[in-house]
Design a protein that fits this description.
InterPro entries: FAD/NAD-bd_sf, FAD/NAD-binding_dom, Ferredoxin-NADP_redctase_2
Number of strands: 17
GO molecular function: oxidoreductase activity
Organism: Metarhizium robertsii
CATH superfamily of the largest domain: FAD/NAD(P)-binding domain
Order of helices and strands: EHEEEEEEHEEHEHEEEEEEHEH
CATH topology of the largest domain: FAD/NAD(P)-binding domain
Largest sheet: 5 strands, parallel
Keywords: Flavoprotein, Oxidoreductase
Shape: elongated
Helix content: 10-25%
Family: Belongs to the class-II pyridine nucleotide-disulfide oxidoreductase family.
Length: 288
């Protein structure tokens, strides 16, 4: 197992959605998982702080990997669990408040910050009516009032208002965002606008675009889904190149820890299933 030490939820103080680990730091979860694997199974080796730089499949069907230090490894099957990285918006303060007062998943964060009002930053992937209102509806379960900040896009704001339906607790704001800063005492978030005015929210919801971490999938020539994830055969997690499996955010549209854990289990099982069938010259039970 190659672990480069880069994690998408590194900015989160605590995690949700995993039974037994609610409100625990993600680093504690990773440490416990690693210890349980290495303490109980002497066939597992974890190489920490290791960046795999190249990956290829030879004519003999063997996968060859090399890291940035020039070391090489080979194997019959390969599981890519390289994840994705969030592309921060070019708004001052956005990156600093990401995971602290700006949340991309309201099933992961937001409950603790619930209160009088919350905002949706309706730009980028949320810069359309359907997605913006989808997130706004989720916020209404946590906050009494929801403001959709359209960052100067008057057309989008009008389209969103037309889609409000019977909702009376939503509104739009078309002022252009200048910067984002932490609220008083580190609570909430202050949105400062180009005209010198500002607004305060308990939190903001926004989903930035993501991109695959690293380029191993491209080196292997794997097919991609429209959003850039590795295309896999459901539910087996096999990529377009036989012997390669993808697990976690790099092969899923819905990106969260439970889905990553589940797909990791499936990818590991299917890689083992395919390998054992190959070693015995037999056909796998599953279409692998």
């Amino acid at each position: 197992v190659f672990d480069n030490g880069q994690y998408r939820n590194a900015a989160a103080d605590y995690m949700h959605l995993i039974p037994g680990w609610d409100h625990k730091p993600p680093s504690d979860f990773r440490t416990a998982a690693r210890s349980q694997m290495t303490d109980s199974y002497d066939v597992i080796r974890i190489l920490e702080d290791t960046n795999v730089a190249t990956a290829q499949k030879t004519d003999q069907g063997i996968f060859q990997l090399s890291d940035e230090a020039g070391r090489t490894w080979s194997g019959k099957k390969l599981i890519l669990a390289t994840g994705v990285e969030d592309v921060m918006l070019d708004i001052p303060g956005y990156a600093e408040l990401w995971g602290k007062a700006i949340f991309h998943c309201l099933y992961c964060k937001g409950y603790e910050q619930r209160g009088a009002s919350a905002g949706v930053l309706a730009v980028g992937p949320l810069g359309n009516v359907n997605t913006a209102l989808h997130i706004a509806r989720q916020e209404t379960a946590l906050s009494k009032r929801v403001t959709l900040y359209c960052n100067g896009n008057e057309t989008l704001a009008a389209e969103i208002v037309a889609g409000f339906g019977t909702a009376t607790n939503m509104k739009t704001d078309t002022r252009k965002v200048k910067e984002l800063v932490a609220g008083s005492g580190g609570q909430g978030i202050v949105i400062r606008f180009d005209d010198g005015s500002e607004a305060v929210e308990d939190y903001l919801a926004h989903q930035p675009p993501t991109r695959p971490r690293g380029n191993l999938a491209d080196q292997l020539g794997l097919e991609k889904a429209p959003n850039g994830e590795v295309k896999v055969s459901s539910p087996f997690q096999q990529a377009s190149l036989r012997g390669v499996f993808a697990a976690g955010d790099n092969g899923a549209m819905l990106k969260n820890v439970p889905n990553a854990v589940f797909s990791g289990h499936v990818a590991g099982q299917m890689a083992s299933t395919q390998l054992l069938a190959d070693l015995n010259g037999q056909k796998s039970l599953f279409p692998l």
